[in-house]
Amino acid sequence: MNSVALKISRGHLIRFASPWTNFCTKRSNSTSVNSRQAFLEPLECQAGITCLSLNRPQSKNAISTTLLKELIQSLDTAQFDKSIRVLILRSTTTGSFCAGADLIERRSMSQVQVARFLSDLRVALGKLETLPMPTIAAIDGPALGGGLELGLACDLRVAGRNVTKIGLPETALGIIPGAGGTQRATRLVGPARAKDLIFTARMLSATEALEWGLVDYISSPESDAFERAVQLASQISNNAPLALRAAKQAISRSEDLALEPGLDFERASYEALLSTQDRMEALVAFKEKRRPVFKGE
Across the strands, what pairs with 137? Predict the structure, then answer.
């Protein structure tokens, strides 16, 4: 099968085919959906993959109070939706991701409103980071400040090859990253590179971000970050949902636990999976030399 990739445009059917993956999605034209600045959108023809879509194209998805409120609502819904095996955070607009906080709105906010916004943003990123299913950020455009911090709260990050602005520029604006950038970037790339990124307020290209370890994949020249993210999500979603959730929890806890307690936690997580229907299905499928059909049970 020859590879075929069609760019995403709102309201049009999109298909991607390669020797190992196929997907299609349709962006709704419904006013009730597209009037929202953040919403969940299951990916058609790929059961188990859902997009958390950012939808403020006129401002490159700058985080407004409305977007933040709807982001939290979407995350609360995703938290308890067992049908979601992988969540992709993406923009509804080609060539975009998230430009950070809405500085135009910020100028009209009182100190109390700013404090509330920052508190809510911290809550939102905490919810995103602790979702039980694997999460992927599809960075198809500038990821600046709070936008990059959104990406850092995901498990994996995919950048479009032509993206040129990935960074934490807050020190150039008289502040510091305020939504986890100093903490999550440091855990990801180490203190020296985190200091370099934040002290200089530099912008990284997708290739540089990959070299630094800020992103995990970049797209091929003929595709974009969302297409590559769907390929990755497809690989992940083929595996047992309960095992994916247990693996994520065990890996995430490793930062907080010493080795021996960490090994105890891993063992407890492992043993809890032994009696699941998915584990039994995997053993039967192996014996029958076929792919297992996992149900998350």
Answer: 89, 157
